[in-house]
Amino acid sequence: MAKGLAEQRRQEMIAALRAGGHRLTPQRLAVVEILAESANHPSVEQVFKRVQRDFPTTSLATIYKTMSLLKQMGQVLELGFAHWGSRYDGKKPYPHPHVICTRCGAIVDPESPGMQELAQQMAGKSGFRISHHRLDFFGLCPRCQGR
Amino acid sequence: MAKGLAEQRRQEMIAALRAGGHRLTPQRLAVVEILAESANHPSVEQVFKRVQRDFPTTSLATIYKTMSLLKQMGQVLELGFAHWGSRYDGKKPYPHPHVICTRCGAIVDPESPGMQELAQQMAGKSGFRISHHRLDFFGLCPRCQGR
DNA sequence: TATCATAGGATAATCGTTTTCCATAGCAGT
DNA sequence: ACTGCTATGGAAAACGATTATCCTATGATA
């Protein structure tokens, strides 16, 4: 929403790239800018097409590589789905709830009340008609914590 | 846990197949039995290997088809992941929280306190060391609700 | 500006899943 | 039980998103 937020995120991502010793190529800067600005959780394909507007020779592989790089630096959040492609969040690269339309694929961020809300309550807030949901926690099980 | 629960789920799945006008083939019955009994959220590959013990000529496609059928009848819950294969829950085929080990792939069902718990709290209960989590709601957005 | 490792581009490879096509076998109805 | 219709199983090809490969080009430093 706020213009300054996108700019701030852009700077943060660029700083992270610099700090990691990565090169600031035009393609990377383009991806960063798109991720910092888009509130619609874009797909790789969508980012690809937008980058192509400025750099027509860009390869899809470059987008994937850049996404992967930003992700492992914690600068983008990947929303991976099993049957459709992944979606990316560069504005809030930390875990937070999402409401997803199974028909058009729209993804919105409900204002997170602290995560201790019920599914039904979230449905009301977003105006979505919730059919089902998914709540996953990732980490190491007791057996695996011993390295 | 209880022996009777698996048997009950098996009966329910068979009844659902009958009600849907689907044939009770040996392969389907084998898949149903495995899903009703396994508490470890098996993958397609795991189900496949177990069915093969009884029916060596079984095809992987058959398992996929059967899983898909049971899923669309609401008799199994699919836990789809973007980068690894899907996992299936035939014991509790309705949305509920899962705790997943990112190292060994173990999946356990924490006793669901009503879903209004924080990630940190769930970590304590399961003994897992949570690194990140995922909370998704699926449904129709306002624009799509108008068919 | 010269150097050199890193990054980009094009394409092939990967992998879980789906589709295709035909032979087989459930499951009525006789 | 027997027959016949149609859904289902089996084998392999197709699929689609993502990843790897390989070579050239280009940032970043001195």
Please describe what this structure looks like:
Two copies of one chain form a homodimer. Chain A has 147 residues and is α+β, with helices and mostly antiparallel strands. Chain A has a domain at 3-89: Winged helix-like DNA-binding domain superfamily/Winged helix DNA-binding domain (Arc Repressor Mutant, subunit A, Orthogonal Bundle), CATH 1.10.10.10. Chain A is 41% helix and 16% strand. Chain A has five helices and five strands. Chain A has helices spanning 3-19, 26-37, 44-54, 60-72, 119-126, and strands spanning 77-79, 87-89, 98-101, 107-108, 129-140. The first copy, chain A, has a two-stranded antiparallel sheet. Chain A has a two-stranded antiparallel ribbon with strand order 3-4. In chain A, a hairpin with a 7-residue loop joins strand 1 (77-79) and strand 2. In chain A, helix 1 (3-19) runs antiparallel to helix 2, helix 2 packs across helix 3 (44-54) and helix 3 packs across helix 4. Chain A is globular. Chains A and B meet through strand 3, helix 5 and strand 5 of A and strand 3, helix 5 and strand 5 of B. Strand 5 (129-140) of chain A pairs parallel with strand 3 of chain B, so a sheet runs across the interface. The structure holds a DNA duplex (30 and 30 nucleotides).
Helix and strand layout, with pairings?
The structure is a homodimer of 147-residue chains.
Chain A: H1 3-19, H2 26-37, H3 44-54, H4 60-72, E1 77-79, E2 87-89, E3 98-101, E4 107-108, H5 119-126, E5 129-140
Antiparallel strand pairs in A: 1-2, 3-4
Helix pairs in contact in A: 1-2, 2-3, 3-4
Chain A binds a DNA duplex (30 and 30 nucleotides) through helix 4.
